Amino acid sequence: MTDSVTRAGIAVDAELARFIENEVLSVLGRDVASFWEGLAALLAEFAPRNRALLATREDLQAKIDNWHKDRRGQRIDQGEYQTFLREIGYLVPEPGEFTIGTQNVDPEIATMAGPQLVVPILNARFLLNAANARWGSLYDAFYGTDALDAPPAKPGGYDKDRGDAVIARGREFLDQAVPLKNGSWADLELADVVANGIAISDERQYLGATEKGRLFKNNGLHIEVVFDPESSIGSEDKAGISDINVEAALTTICDCEDSVAAVDAEDKLLAYTNWLGLIRGDLEESFDKGTTRVTRKLEGDKVYTAPDGSSASLSGRSLLFVRNVGHLMTNPAIWLADGHEIPEGIMDAVFTSAIGALDVEGHAQYGNSRCGSIYIVKPKMHGPEECAFTNDLFDAVEDLLGLRRHTIKVGVMDEERRTSANLGACIHAVRDRIVFINTGFLDRTGDEIHTSMQAGPMVRKAQMKSSEWLAAYEKRNVAIGLRHGLSGRAQIGKGMWPAPDLMGQMMAEKIGHLKAGANTAWVPSPTAATLHALHYHQCNVFAEQSGLTEVPPLEDLLTIPLAKGTNWSDDELREELDNNAQGLLGYVVRWIDQGVGCSKVPDINDVGLMEDRATLRISSQHMANWLLHGVVTEEQVMDSLRRMAAKVDQQNAGDPFYEPLLENEDGPAFRAACDLVFKGVDQPSGYTEPLLHRWRQVKKAS
């Protein structure tokens, strides 16, 4: 820490202390000295507990490793395996019947179903784009993507043929979501609208008139049909319709974790400053768009006049969660009296909640939660003991800040094997504040590999998607959530669609998340949110959930995806290594050299994928597993890393800030990639953060 001040016996980065004292505590009217004394007491209790939980992880992993080593080459007997896991405390008794008791949950989470964005908190422009993605233009989304089954737009300005196809598709959507009493929206004419209004089949769907449109509702989501005959589009439309705006990203997760590279006080201060700007409502970002200087800020509410003449409004912004980091990492922004760095997850809990209290206590321009809640997503918790720790920590933070009990709500990321296997008990541990569970293929597969690292070589990464454990994991998450009353009170979420340029494929496939019972699912962009919103008009998720309560057996979840008796060819081995190495290097080089934690990274086939840190965990752990069991050699891995470094260099040739990997094999980025693989077996839970943070700090210091 370059410049610190002492507060209640702890050393705090001076700028961070100034920020929390002047920008947050003074506005809240909290006594500064009491805050720091309370924080010091909180840390004295919870930092040792945090370290003890991490020691438990290591102890359990060592016992599991030894169990597999003793039985290497033998068939795993599920009865014996589960008995062992219970004896060591990895599996715990299931709680009895219970229903979550969470109160004061906003409808965007509890009773509405729609898309969810995840956005890096260090990028103000992305944050504003995501927060403003509550409403999206359907015309723009179809015109600019392959979601429309029509020839692409011809270059050179507006393509009327493409535009006509967009308009026709928009009318199809309206016919499905808000059918007219007679005929089709395609037949509607402006004169008839002016004279007689719009006669829809179900008059309850009509909510009122906006400044230039008509507002409707279907499956809990809102649709604004914009009538503007003076506009370029509306003037050519016989009904005068210029656009269709759909309610899209109901919720957004502002991410302090896997999509950012935050390794020190400077980075954390930027994260908290951006979160403050969002909560306060005054975050702005200016940038050049072509030859024009553009300033982006938060959208206001959408006001409308109801049929009875009263005025009402809908939020113009996505409801915001903040994702804190997990229990593993510490951060040099604050040093404790015992000489340890502060556990970063505890620091996030205190500081993001303090900022969230500004919303709860009426110091925000727009307001985030209309129910007086602060929404925090907590990732990478291993089992119910760690969930209980988070619940106790949030209790203590509420006491520190003078907030009523359970103001702070929690979203539990079901992305670790011990959490999946004990999900009911995890939910029970946070039963009065839980608002969210979800699944994620990449992190969960990374932990699947690491937990059973010593059991044998794993199947190829692509085969994981059809493995028995993964199917059970996805179904159990939904069924257990429904069994304990999450429907109508909390979100059950599914993972990211990673390819922002493949919207046609997303529209064909992602409705499967709704059919599986998810009332929210992650998308990579505001445009994707607009398109994915159409799925929620097609499918009533809450009706689907009623038939999804059967929980697959634990045995299916605990079936390890081992490649039994498989002999891969040299070409297959090279193909698998290259796929892992290219994805690893393509992400690492931006993380280490540029501090970019989330971006569209070309895959080995040059398809742009929206990647975050989870892609490193699965790729590095898979390569480490094959190395450990002699499937591949160190020489083969290095050969793949060097060849894929050349490919990644070529893919980034147009980036003026890019530093080539092949010219810098001794540099932090390439060395970090090597460490992630060759030291992968020894990394705690297979996490990438310790190595990434160390090499990023080296890069920043240079």
Automatic annotation (TrEMBL):
Q: Name one GO molecular function term.
A: malate synthase activity
Supply the gene name: glcB
**Protein's UniProt name:** Malate synthase G
Pathway the protein takes part in:
Carbohydrate metabolism; glyoxylate cycle; (S)-malate from isocitrate: step 2/2
Where in the cell? Cytoplasm
Q: What is its EC number?
A: 2.3.3.9
For whether the record's keyword set contains Calcium, the answer is no
Catalytic positions are: 323, 612
Cofactor dependency: Mg(2+)
Which amino acids does the record list as binding acetyl-CoA? Answer: 118, 125-126, 259, 296, 524
Chain ranges of the Malate synthase N-terminal domain: 18-69
Give residue ranges for domain Malate synthase TIM barrel. Answer: 320-549
The Malate synthase C-terminal domain covers 573-679
Free-text function comment from the UniProt entry: Involved in the glycolate utilization. Catalyzes the condensation and subsequent hydrolysis of acetyl-coenzyme A (acetyl-CoA) and glyoxylate to form malate and CoA.
Query: Where's the Malate synthase G alpha-beta insertion domain?
Result: 158-201
Q: Subunit info?
A: Monomer.
| Keyword Transferase attributed | yes
Can you name the source organism?
Altererythrobacter arenosus
Pfam families named among the record's database cross-references: MS_C, MS_N, MS_TIM-barrel, MSG_insertion
Modification type Cysteine sulfenic acid (-SOH): residues: 598
Task: Provide the reaction this enzyme catalyses.
Answer: glyoxylate + acetyl-CoA + H2O = (S)-malate + CoA + H(+)
Q: Which residues bind glyoxylate?
A: 323, 415, 440-443
| Protein family per UniProt | Belongs to the malate synthase family. GlcB subfamily.
Q: Where does Mg(2+) bind?
A: 415, 443
Q: Which UniProt keywords apply?
A: Acyltransferase, Cytoplasm, Glyoxylate bypass, Magnesium, Metal-binding, Oxidation, Transferase, Tricarboxylic acid cycle
Q: Which HAMAP family match?
A: Malate_synth_G (MF_00641)
